[in-house]
Specification:
This is WD40-repeat-containing domain protein. The protein has 320 residues and is mostly beta strands. The protein has 2 domains: 213 residues, 7 Propeller (Methylamine Dehydrogenase, Chain H); 93 residues, Lipocalin, CATH 2.40.128. Helices cover 1% and strands 42% of the residues. It contains 1 helix and 25 strands. Strands 9-10-11-12-16 form a 5-stranded mixed beta sheet. Strands 1-2-3-4 form a 4-stranded antiparallel beta sheet, with no helix packed on it. It has a 4-stranded antiparallel beta sheet with strand order 5-6-7-8, with no helix packed on it. The longest helix has 4 residues. It is globular and about 50 Å long. It starts with 14 loop residues before the first strand and ends in a 19-residue tail after the last strand.
Length: 320
């Protein structure tokens, strides 16, 4: 593995999330749609940038750039973005939802390079967005206002409000449940209720915390900052650089990974499409690649020009 390209964005802030636009072959998405696995989105400052990574890093050409700061506004902190996720529309357009400090979800059209939908409901910073694994119209958002919300993009409305004081979420591959992780190590499993009544009702359903399944605090009281499913199990990370691979049914830890770093680090890790590998960033600029099944470190990726904290990292489709 080698460093192929360095891109410096002009917003001067950390990159908070990276996301490839992968196609799920087993979803309802059209089998004839164009392969978009080379399209990469980055979120940093008040900007969302979309790149073409067709040549596996040798060329990273910018396709679109969105800045949500109103032209008359100078206080960028009020519009800083935290997260983004992709959606595919049968019309052939790619939509990307992004959100952050302004508490609204901005749904942008890549084909038209404009904002198509603005979802309002949260009252504080939105920290995480997740697209539904099996359809292209449901979106799950997480906010510092103490709620997670399930939205319908086609109807442009909130369907369910979950009483979840959480920092992030992760859908189960079935799309029927999701996991939340909190600032004090709390993790819960939530079941999405029947949406029949909420689709025809203007008032969203409410799901209270007592209805969630409390999971063991495998990270103690440490801030859980990333959750992923892999091979039917959970991979969870806390800011003290502990990564646990464990069974959600028995809640037994299968193995743990310790990332070498002297300081706490908020970093989104990624799991390869085949569920074999995990990559995770460190406070000092390195990216570690582990074999999930064997637990061994496969590579430490570093470069003298990359020494700042890695806030996120992602695999390409073929892990090259």
């Amino acid at each position: 593995m080698r460093l192929r390209r360095i891109v410096k964005e002009n917003h001067g802030h950390d990159i908070s999330q990276l996301s490839f636009f992968f196609k799920d072959d087993d979803s309802e998405r059209s089998a004839q749609r164009i392969d978009t696995s080379n399209v990469l989105a980055s979120v940093g400052g008040c900007q969302l940038s979309v790149y073409d990574n067709e040549h596996c890093g040798d060329h990273l050409d910018i396709m679109s750039n969105f800045d949500i700061t109103p032209s008359h506004q100078k206080q960028e902190a009020k519009y800083k973005l935290k997260t983004a996720c992709w959606f595919y529309k049968e019309s052939g357009d790619a939509l990307i939802a992004t959100a952050g400090a302004d508490s609204m979800i901005h749904v942008l059209s890549l084909a038209n390079s404009e904002e198509m939908i603005l979802l309002k409901g949260h009252t504080s910073t939105i920290t995480d967005l997740q697209s539904h694994p099996l359809n292209n119209h449901h979106l799950l958002s997480t906010s510092k206002d103490g709620t997670a919300r399930l939205w319908d993009l086609d109807q442009e409305k909130c369907l369910v409000v979950f009483e979840a004081k959480t920092a992030l979420t992760c859908f189960h591959p079935s799309g029927n449940t999701f996991i939340t992780g909190g600032e004090h190590g709390d993790m819960c499993e939530w079941t999405i209720p029947s949406l029949d009544s909420s689709i025809s009702n203007d008032t969203p359903l409410k799901v209270f915390k007592k209805e969630a399944r409390m999971l063991n605090k495998v990270h103690g009281s440490k801030y859980v900052d990333c959750i992923r499913y892999a091979n039917g199990n959970l991979l969870t990370k806390s800011v003290d650089n502990r990564l646990h691979y464990w069974r959600p049914d028995t809640q037994n830890i299968i193995r743990s990974f310790s990332i070498t770093s002297q300081k706490s680090n908020h970093s989104r890790f990624d799991v390869s499409r085949d569920g074999k590998y995990v990559c995770i960033g460190s406070q000092h600029g390195s990216v570690y690649v582990y074999d999930i099944h064997k637990g061994n470190l496969l590579a430490e990726l570093c470069h003298k020009k990359a020494t700042k904290a890695v806030r996120c990292c992602v695999f390409t489709r073929n892990c090259r």
